[in-house]
Amino acid sequence: MTGRERRDHNSVPIGRRVAELRVRRGMSQQVFADRIGKSKSWVDKVERGVRRLDRYSVIQDIAAVLRLDPATLLGPGQGSSPAAPRPDGIDAIRAALVRCHHRPGRTTPPDQARQQIAHAWMTYQHAHYAQLLRALPALLDTVHRTPALLVPAYRITASMLTKLDAADLAWLAADRAVTASASDPDATGAATISVSQALRALGRDHLALTAAVTAADLPAHHAVRGTLLLEAGIAAAGGDDRRNADDLIDHAADLAGRHADDTDPHHTGFGTTTVRLARFLAALHLGDMAEAVCRHESVVRRDGWRHLSSEHRAAHLIDAARAYLHVGNYAAAERALVDADTIAPAETRYRPVARTVIAEVARSSPASAGMARLATFAGLTRQGAMEPADRQDPRRES
Length: 398
Known about the structure:
- By secondary structure, this protein is an all-alpha fold.
- It folds into 4 domains: 3-74, Orthogonal Bundle (434 Repressor (Amino-terminal Domain)), CATH 1.10.260.40; 94-180; 205-286, no CATH class; 295-398, no CATH class.
- The protein is built from 22 helices and no strands.
- It has helices at residues 3-10, 14-24, 29-36, 40-48, 56-66, 70-74, 90-98, 110-125, 129-142, 147-163, 167-180, 185-201, 205-215, 222-238, 242-258, 272-286, 289-299, 310-327, 330-343, 345-350, 352-364, 369-377.
């Protein structure tokens, strides 16, 4: 195989490789979907690159049906798992969730516990994930006798676990938050935001939509209600329901327009900027990549962009890189990823979805110096393929 052929093979996105191998096995999308326990729509989105394929357990299932090694799907140099090198702590969180009814008898003063919750939110919003993972088990133990603080503690836990592709565990933490919310409508609504996010991460868009829409009638606070509507709209887009997605996000936009204050006691981040980001995500999930790129480029030019948390901006830029990759603008995809890493390094270096996008971009074109460094930090260095563009050997083109 020549250098050009090898590079072209490596540049094929994972979804397209799945499609090629499925066809080679003589399976229709419907047959393939039935065998891996997914819908035909899900398979079609994966093969078109609309839905990301970044959970190793799913890749294993696909590989088993296609009768091949998972590494064949991941491409050369990708190792045995797409999971990013991530900080320790998930097992400790799992243990803390298990011992929910068997915690130490020591009680922490409520004011001290509230300070710990506030610090945890700040740590999450600044994307200091390693630090937060170390703190969460003790935080869950600290607040177990203070029901009013259980909801935010479980919500932070669910958000962190969703980031690190531990969506099953995130769903458990989010469900605990709903249980702890008792009869407080705002707390229940805030907890359901986390439930919806975990369900979307699990690929259960219809359930996420149902949960968010049902809970949206409960909260009195506009930020909680508006965020639930956004979650429902994004879930609808994930289920190819364009009309519902647009309607739900429009309702959220109306709320954001009528309540332009900065009060956000439940840490939702809701506002006109998050509404615009939801429209971007909806376009991304619906496969409207050109529209997604336009929406991204519009929102980052507005004043509201710089007021978002570091975590939110970096997460959005990773999604923007996916959109740029799909329309073939590899230079813009690289810039988005490098910018995300500058804003919140943990977002690009720990998250499996970020690692997947970095690998796809690096396979698609010669890596710039910044991209090569990012790939190295993410543990994706591959001899030759990750070299900076200005150091590529021109003889490889022959």
